[in-house]
Amino acid sequence: MWTPTEEEKYGVVICSFRGSIPQGLVLELGETVQILEKCEGWYRGVSIKKPNVKGIFPANYIHLKKAIVSNRGQYETVVPLEDSVVTEVTATLQEWAILWKQLYVKHKIDLFYKLRHVMNELIDLRRQLLSGHLTQDQVREVKRHLTVRLDWGNEHLGLDLVPRKDFEVVDSDQISISDLYKMHLSSRHSVQQSTTQVDTIRQRHGEACRMPVPHHFFVSLKSFTYNTIGEDTDVFFSLYDVRESKQISERFLVRLNKNGGPRNPEKIERMCGLFTDLSSKDMKRDLYIVAHVIRIGRMLLNDSKKGPSHLHYRRPYGCAVLSIMDVLQSISELKEEKDFVLKVYTCNNENEWYQIHENIIRKSSTKYTAPSSNYGLIISLQLLRGDMEQIRRENPMIFNRGVSVTRKLGFPDVIMPGDIRNDLYLTLEKGDFERGGKSVQKNIEVTMYVLYADGEILKDCISLGSGEPNRSAYHSFVLYHSNSPRWGEIIKLPIPIDRFRGSHLRFEFRHCSTKDKGEKKLFGFAFTPLMRDDGTTLSDDIHELYVYKCDENSTFNNHALYLGLPCCKEDYNGCPNIPSSLIFQRSTKETFSISTQLSSTKLTQNVDLLALLKWKAYPDRVMDILGRLRHVNGEEIVKFLQDILDTLFVILDDNTEKYGLLVFQSLVFIINLLRDSKYFHFRPVMDMYIQKHFAGALAYKELIRCLKWYMDRSAELVRQDHIQEAMRALEYLFKFIVQSRILYSRATCGMEEEQFRSSIQELFQSIRFVLSLDSRSSETLIFTQAALLNSFPAIFDELLQMFTVQEVAEFVRGTLGSMPSTVHIGQSMDVVKLQSIARTVDSRLFSFSESRRILLPVVLHHIHLHLRQQKELLICSGILSSIFSIIKASSLEADVVEEVEMMVESLLDVLLQTLLTIMSKSQSQEAVRGQRCPQCTAEITGEYVSCLLSLLRQMSDTHFQHLLDNFQSKDELKEFLLKIFCVFRNLMKMSVFPRDWMVMRLLTSNIIVTTVQYLSSALHKNFTETDFDFKVWNSYFSLAVLFINQPSLQLETVTPAKRKKILDKYGDMRVMMAYELFSMWQNLGEHKIHFIPGMIGPFLGVTLVPQTEVRNIMIPIFHDMMDWEQRKNGNFKQVEAELIDKLDSLVSEGKGDENYRELFSLLIVMGNFTFCCQFHLFVSLLHAAWSRTQLFGPYPSLLEKIEQETWRETGVSFVTSVTRLMERLLDYRDCMKGDETENKKIGCTVNLMNFYKSEINKEEMYIRYIHKLCDMHLQAENYTEAAFTLLLYCELLQWEDRPLREFLHYPSQTEWQRKEGLCRKIIHYFNKGKSWEFGIPLCRELAIQYESLYDYQSLSWIRKMEATYYDNIMEQQRLEPEFFRVGFYGRKFPFFLRNKEYVCRGHDYERLETFQQRMLSEFPQAIAMQHPNHPDDTILQCDAQYLQIYAVTPIPDNIDVLQMERVPDRIKSFYRVNNIRKFRYDRPFHKGPKDKENEFKSLWIERTTLTLTHSLPGISRWFEVERRELVEVSPLENAIQVVENKNQELRTLISQYQHKQMHGNINLLSMCLNGVIDAAVNGGIARYQEAFFDKDYITKHPGDAEKITQLKELMQEQVHVLGVGLAVHEKFVHPEMRPLHKKLIDQFQMMQSSLYHELPGLDKLSPACSGTSTPRSSVLVSHGPMSPESIKLVHRHSPLNLLGSVRHSSSSLSSHTSSETGNLVILTDSSVGETAEDMYHMQASPSTSSLSSTHSAPSQMINSAPSSARVLVKGAGLTTLEAEALYLSTEQIQHGRQQCKLPHTAPTNVPHLCPGGTTSRGSPSLPDKYRHTRELMMLLPTHRDRPSSAMYPAAIMENGQVTTHCTLMPSTTISVMLLQHCLHEHCASLLFIQFLHHPQVPSLAWMEVTPLCQAVPAVVCPP
Predict the structure, then answer these.
(1) How many CB atoms within 10 Å of residue 1090?
(2) Which pLDDT belongs to residue 826?
(3) For position 406, what pLDDT does the model report?
(4) Among 732, 763, 1087, 1781, which residue has the least CB neighbours within 10 Å?
(5) How many Å apart are CA 1550 and CA 1625, to the nearest integer?
(6) Collapsing DSSP states into helix, strand and coil, what is residue 331?
C-alpha cells in the first residue's frame, strides 16, 4: 500500500532507471527526485527536471538527502538541506553538460576543452566542500574558487550572470535594487578579472585606506652541481638593490658538505627560505638575488702545504646573481615554483671580494672568472602575495618544509601592531692594519663577541643568516695576504631587550699563519658599547673604531680595563682625560670600521623622544621638547605610542594653561601620523589605548577649548595649516573628549553634565560658523572646510555615547544645513560636501529611523539641488543607493512609509529628468560631467536606473495616489507621464542592463508593469474625453508594445526549468501588459481613429510574439481599427497599406516561423472559398500566427462579429494580398538568415520585388528591393544582371530637374542628376559583364542629353566609351553560356520555386554535370529526377524536393543578323545567346515499326519549346517558364532541316573565305568540304534518298510531295554550294595540300554521280570539280543519317559546324546527337554500333555534360570537351604521308617554322585508350586525368550547336519505351583528348607526333588535331 513519506523526501539517482514497467518514471544518473509516497522498496514521485510527470522507481536506485519540506501535502515544496553553493554547482553542471556537447558539434573546440577542464575543477571542489573536513578559511577559499568558475562558465556559454553576496546567490526580493545592481557589477568584475570574488558591495564613498599587499620570495636551493671544491661550503642568499648599491634583506644561509649535500641530514629537501615584506615599491626596484659561496677549509685550495690540515678557515670562493626583473613576469604568472640555474663566478683578486656581486652584475669580466660549465646553483623561485597569516594559510606545504623566514633590513611598509622586533644589523666594513715587521701581509681574521655589562659573553646572540641556529661568537672570513681587508659581511644581533642596555661588542684581530703550526696570533682588538650614556642606542651609521694592541697573553677577564677607554673618535672627544698608563695601548695607525642598523620596536636612537619620555628630568625644556616632537621619525613614535600618549596627558594635567595648546598640537600630530597608510594599522593600538589605558579624566575640557579656539580663528588667519590638521584629527579628538568625559562622570557621579553639554553645543556652533563662511575668496579656508567636512561624519558614533539619537541628529542637521547651497560654492566643495553627506548616510546614525526623520529632508534637499543642475551625478547616485538600501532593510518599520513619501515628493520628478538627460547624452556620445569614460556613462545610467526602480518598488498604492493627487494641473500630470513613459521606453530600447543580467531585467520589467498599472487609470481618467491628448496615449501604447516585445520576456527561448522559475515568481508579464493595453484601447472610444494607421505596425509586432494569450487579446484591436477606418473613410486602405509595410519590416527582422507558413498554405488551398472563409483564415492568421492553435479558435464570437459587418466583402483582395505577401516575405527571410546560396537569395528577392511592383504597387519598397538585388548580384559578380536590375530604377526616372529627397545611399539631388549617375553606373556594370551591346544604347541616351546641354566634355567621354565598346565587341573573346531547364517539384521548396520550371543561364565554362552538382548542393535535400517526363500530382504534392535538369537550346529572336553573310561571327555569337526568351530541346523516338534497313524512315523528333516570363539575360540568371509548346517533327521534316542547316553553314564559311574574313589557314574549309562530300559519297544523304525518294514512301505519304520536292531542291543546292566551295578551296589551297584537294574533287564526282539518277541537272559541274579520283571504298564517312551496315566513322561536327555560322537543329547532317566539337574517338573494325539507335545509346545521362556542353565555351576550346562527347573515327582515310603533308603545309603557312625531320617510324607502345568509365546510365566518359582545364588559347571562331536529345542516355525509344542496355567502347579505342592533354601539358614534341605516325591513327585525325598543334608553340612539325 502506498503511504506518504515522512523523512524520505529528496534524493539523487545513483543508477539510471529505464521505467520499463507500468507507471515507471524514466530516470538518468545524477537526476534529483522529490519523493511523495513509498511502498515495499518502491517510491512514487517526480523528477525535478520534469515536475509534471509522476511515476514509480526503485528505492535502492536513490541516495536520500536531507531536505526542508514546507506546505506538506499535495503541493509541498522540498528544498535540499545542503550548502546553497553545492546546490548551485550541481544544477549548473547539469545545465552545462548539455551545452558542452553542443560546443563540440558546433566546432568550438577551444571552449569545449576549457569548459571540460572547468567542469572537472568544479566537480573536485564540490567534492571537497561536501567532505566536511575543511576549516572555515578553507571552505571560504573553496567557495571563492567555485563561484569564480561558475561565473566564468556562465559568461562564456552566454548564460545569466548570478548576483552573489558572500558567495551565495542573493534573493532579489530581500535587497534593494541598488544593491542588486552593485552585486551584478561586482560579479561582472569578478568574471572579467578572473581573480578574487568581491565579497561585499563595494564602497562608493571615500577611499578607505587599503593595506598595501606585501610580496614574498620563496627561494629553495635544489643542488650545487658545480661543487668541485671538495670542502664544506656556506652559501649566503640575499636581496641586493643595484641602484642603491646596498643589501635590503637579511641573509639566508645554507650549509653544504664537501659532496654538495646539506651538512645537516635533516635539511634534505628543506634548504629553503622566504624573503618577506617586500613592498610594491621594492618590486619595482632593480633587485637581484645574490649568492655568496664561502668555503671552509685550507687557506689555499690548490696548495696543501699552506696551513695544517686540522685548521679550517672561512675563505671566499665565488658568487652568483639572478636578476629578479628578468624572471618576475614568468614567476608571477605561475602558481608554483620555477627552477633557475645560477652560474658561480670566482673572484680574480680577493681584495675586491666585497664588490664581486657588483662586478658580475655590471659584467666587469676582467675582475672575475666564469665557470667552465653552465652548471652551478640550481634554485627554485616562487612569488607569493599577502600578509604572513594568509601565506601560511594558503601554502601550508612551504612551512611544513621548515622554511627559514628571512626578513627585510629595517621595517616593512606596514608595521603591524604587536610586531615586536629588536634586531641590530652589523656590517663588517673594512680594516687597516700594520704589517708588523713581516715581509708579507697578514691573513686577518676577526672574531666578535657580544658581552653583557658584567663581562659575560651572551649566548646565541649572533646570527650569520636565517636557516641556521644562532651562535655566541662570530669568525669572519680570511682574505689572503691583505692588511687592508674589506669584508662587507652583514651579521644580525638578536639581543634580548633586557640585555641591551650595558652590553658591548668586542672585536679581536688575529693573524692566521700558514706555517706548519698554523696558529692564529692575536695582535689587537676593538670594542663599542651598544647604548650611549643618554640612553640612545648606537646610531645607524658607519663607526670607525679605535684598534688597541694586545697579544695572546692579554686577558680580557676584567673588561672594565678597556671599557673605560674611548672606542672611537666621538667617544674620545667626550672623555679627554684618559690615563696613559693603561694596559692597552691604542695603535694610532690602525683602524677598524663597522656600520650598524637598528630595527627595534622597543629601543630608540632619537634623543628628542627620550627627552619627552623623561620630561621630568628637564622641567625647563618641556615646551621645547613638545615642539620638537613633530621632528621625530614616525616609526619611533608608533613604537612608543602608549608611552608618548601617557606622557602628553600627564604634562597636560601638570599645567593645563601653560602646556595645553602644545599638548593639543602634539596630539593632533600623532593622530594625523596614524592616518598615513604606513601606520594606519596602528589605529587599533590607539583605540585600545583610549578604551583600556587612557586616564585623562580632565583632558576633555582643554581639548574642547583648544578645538573651539582653532575653529573660531579660522576666519582670521591666512595660514591655516594647523587648523586643517586639527580638523583632520577630529575623529580621535572626539574619542579622547568622550572617553575623558566618561571617566570624569564615573569619578564624579555625573557632575558638570550641563557644562559639558553646553560646551559641545558651543563647539558645534563653531563648526557651523566655519562651514558657513564664504570660502570663494580664500583657498586656504576651502581646505579647512573640506578637512572639517571629511572628518565630521566620523564623530557621530562618539556623540551617540553621550547623547540620544535625536540630539545627535539635530547636531548633524544643523551642521549640514549650515553649508551653502550648490549655487554659492565651487565645484571642489560640492564634491566634499556630498562626500560628507554620503558618509553621514553610511553611518550608524542614519540607520535609526528617529534620526532619518530628522536628517532625510536636508540630505534630499542637497541631492535635489545637485540633480537639478546635473552636477556630481556619480556621488549623488551613491548616496541615493545607500538610502534605498537602508530603507529596504527597514521596510517593515512603520516610519518607512513616511520616508518613501518624502523621497517621492523630493526626488521622483528630478530623477526622471536626470535619467532623460543622461540617456540623451549617452546616445549622442557626449561626456556627462563627472565621468571620464564610456564605461562611466553606462555605469552612471545603471546607477540612476537602479535608484528609480528602487523608489518605484518601495511605492505603495497610497504613494501613487498621493503622487497623482498632488499635481496642480493636467499639464503637470501630462509632463510627468510623458517623462516616465519615455524613461521606461529608453530602458527597453537602450538595454541599460547587459543581456545576461536576467535577474535585473526581469525585476525591471516587473516594476514597469506594476507602475504602468497604477498610472493607466490616471491616463484614462484625465486624457480620454474632452481632454484627449494624443501624445500621452501614443507614448503609452509605444511603451506597452516595446514592453511585450522585450527579448528578456520571450520565455519560449529559455529552458523549461528557467521558464517555470520565472512564471512562478512573476507570471507572464507580457500577458499582464497585453490585458492592460487592450483595456486602455477599449477606453479610447471614438479617439481610436487617431491611432490608425500609426499603431498598426506596433500592434502587429505584438501579434508576432509567440504567446497564444497575447495574440488572442490583441485580435479585437485589429477589428476595431478596420471598423473605425471603414466608418470614417468608407474603406480600410490605410490599414491595408500600413499592414503590408510593417509585415515587410517585421518579417525581415526575423519574426515568424514555419507555423505561419502552414497557415498560408491553407489559405492557398482554400483560395476558392467565399470571402467568409477567407476572412476566417485571415483573422485566425492574426491571432494564431506563430502558434499551433486551431485555425478557427479561440474567438468564435469575434468571427461572427466580423462576418456581420457590412464591409466584409471589401476584404477579399486584402486577404489575398496579405497572404501572398507573407508567403514571399517568409521565404525571403528564411533565405536571408540561413546559409543559403546567392542564387536562392537572388531568386527570392526577385520574386518579392516583382510582387511589390505588380500586385501591391509599393514603389518605395520596390526600389529598396531593386538595390538589395543589385548588391547581391555584385557580390556574386553577376555584373550584367546587376546592370539590368539597376536599369529598373533608372527607367522610373525622367530627364527632369525635379528635386528628389535623400533616399538609401543617394543624396538630395535632382532627378536628372540621379538618372545620369544611375546610367553611368549601369554602363560600368555592362562593361564589367562584357555585355557591351546593352551598354551602347545607354551611351547614346546619355550622349543626347549631354549634347542638348552642350556638355561637350561629358559628350566626348561618352562617345569614346561607346567607341571602346564597339572595339571590345570586335576584339575581345566572349564565352557563350549554356542554358539549363530546371524543374522544382514538391512542397518542400520555397514558395517562389514550388512546382515551377525555370531556365537558367549557366556560368562561364559550366557544363551540365557541374550545373547539376551546383543545384544539388544548393538544395541538399533534393532528389535528381532521371527522366524528362512531366511529374504527376504525387510528386507535385509530396513533402519532398525533386529536381529535373537538362540542357536546352536558345532560339534567337534576331534571325536577320544571323542570316547576314557579312556580319562577323563575333557579333552573331552575341545575338545567338542574348535577348533569348524561347528555348527548345529535342527528343528522338521511333513511331510505328522501325525499318531495319533504314531506321531514319521512322525516326521522329519530339520538340519542346519553352517561353520564359522575361528574356535572358535580365535581372536574374534564371526566369520562370510561362508557356510550353510541344510539336513532333516527322523524319522528312527533320531531313529537310538537317540539309538546310548544313547548306547555310557551308555558304557562311565559303563567304568568309571569299571576303577574306578568314586568312591563311584553309584547314577549316578543307575539313568541312571533306566531311560533307565524303559522307555523301559513302551513304550520308544517300540514306535520305533511300528513305524519302522511294516510290513506296511517296505512295504512302502523298501529302509529303511538296516536302520531298523541297528536300530535292536542298540537295541540288548543296551540290551547287559544294562546287563553289571547291573552287574557293582550289584558289587558296597550299601546293603541298593538292593531294587532298584532288581527293575531294574525286569524291565530289562520286557524290554527284550517286545523286544523278534521283536529281537530274547535276551533270553540270563547276570547273573546280574536274579531274578524276579513285573512290576510296574502304572509307565510308557519314555526317547525316547513317545505315548501321555502313557506319564506320561518326564525325559529330563537320568543320563548317565549327564556324557556328548559324544555329540549327541539333539533329543536323553531322549528327543526331549533341557532342563537343572536335573530339575524336577511334574505333576498331569491331566497333559495336549496329544501328543509328545505338548512337543514342552513347549519349550522356543528366549527370554528364553531353546535353549541355555546347554552351559554356566556344568550339575552338577543343580541349574543354567533356568525356561523354565523342567523335568516332575508323582507322582509315588519308595516308600517313597525306596527313603529314597536310600538317606540314599548315605549319608553313601559319607559322613559317623551320622544319625538323623526325624518323618516320611509329612507336609500338602507344596505348589504345579505353573509356575511362561510364556514367550511371552507361555513357562513356574519360578518366579525370584526361579532362582539361578551360583556359587554353582559343583556337577557332565561336561555334554553336544544340543537342537534340537532352535527357536520353538510353537507346532511342520505340513506342515511347526506353531500352536499358548500354554500349561501351571497345578496349582499343583511343581518344584524341589524350593528344589535347599532351598539348596542354606541353609535352607534345615527341609523343604527339609519334602518336600521329601510328598506323592506326587515320588521316582525318590530322585534320582534327591540326588546330590544336597550332595553339602550342612547342610542337615540332613532322617532315
Answers:
(1) 14
(2) 57
(3) 93
(4) 1087
(5) 9
(6) helix
Q: Which long-range contacts (CB under 8 A, 24 or more apart) does 886-890 make?
A: 886/841, 886/846, 886/847, 886/852, 887/176, 887/954, 888/175, 888/176, 888/179, 888/950, 888/954, 889/176, 890/847, 890/849
CB 1088 within 8 A of CB 1096: no
Q: Supply the pLDDT for residue 933.
A: 52
How long, in residues, is the chain? 1919
The rounded distance, in Å, linking the Cα atoms of 1310 and 1312 is: 5
C-alpha 1401/C-alpha 1752 separation (Å) is: 10
The answer to whether the CB of 271 falls within 8 A of the CB of 293 is no
Separation of alpha carbons 259 and 263, rounded Å: 9
User: What are the b/e assignments for 682-694, b being 16+ CB within 10 Å?
Assistant: bbebbeebbeeeb
Exposure letters 707-746 (e unless 16+ CB within 10 A, then b): bbebbeebeeeeebebbbbbbbbbbbbbbbbbbbbebbbe
C-alpha cell at position 929: 560631467
Residue 77 phi/psi, 5-degree rounding, is -120, 145
Cβ density class 1505-1523: b for 16+ within 10 Å, e for less: bbebebebbbbbbbbbbee
Other C-beta atoms lying within 10 Å of the C-beta of residue 1796 = 11
Q: What angle do helix axes 998-1022 and 1056-1066 make, rounded to 10 degrees? A: 40
The answer to whether the Cα torsion of 776, 779, 784, 788 is positive or negative is: positive
Question: What's the rounded Cα separation, in Å, for the pair 1335 and 1324?
Answer: 8
Q: How far apart are CA 960 and CA 966, in angstroms?
A: 10
Low-confidence ranges of the chain (pLDDT < 70): 191-212, 226-227, 303-309, 413-418, 516, 518, 573-582, 820-827, 923-936, 1137, 1140-1224, 1226-1240, 1254-1257, 1556-1560, 1576-1579, 1652-1919
How far, rounded to the nearest angstrom, does the alpha carbon of residue 1519 sit from its chain's CA centroid? 41
Q: Grid cell 534497313 — which residue?
A: 1493
Q: Where are the alpha helices (DSSP H) in 699-752?
A: 699-712, 721-728, 730-748
Q: Can you say whether residue 79 is alpha, beta or left, with left for phi > 0 and alpha for psi between -120 and 50 degrees?
A: beta
Tell me whether residue 1224 is exposed, middle or buried, using C-beta atoms within 10 angstroms of its C-beta: 0 to 12, 13 to 18, 19 or more.
buried
Contacts of 1047 (CB under 8 A, 6+ apart): 995, 1053
- Which DSSP helix (H) or strand (E) runs through 1459? helix 1455-1459
Cell of 162: 548570478
- CA-CA distance, 1695 to 1549, in Å (whole number)? 9
Alpha helices in 474-533, H assignment, sequence order: 497-500
What local confidence, expressed as pLDDT, does residue 1216 receive? 64
In the three-class reduction of DSSP (H, G, I as helix; E, B as strand; rest coil), residue 928 is classed as: coil
Sign of CA dihedral 1047, 1051, 1056, 1061: positive
pLDDT at 243: 92
**C-alpha torsion sign, points 585, 588, 593, 599:** positive
Interatomic CA distance for residues 182 and 1284, integer angstroms: 59
Task: Give the CA radius of gyration of the chain.
Answer: 53
CA distance 1675 to 1577: 10
**Closest to 878 (Cα-Cα) out of 910, 836, 919, 849:** 836
| 12 SS3 class | strand
Closest CA to 1392 of 1232, 1234, 1511, 1240: 1240
Instruction: Give the C-alpha distances (Å, rounded to integers) separating 1607 from 1178, 1650, 1710.
Output: 64, 16, 17
Start-to-end C-alpha separation, the chain? 110
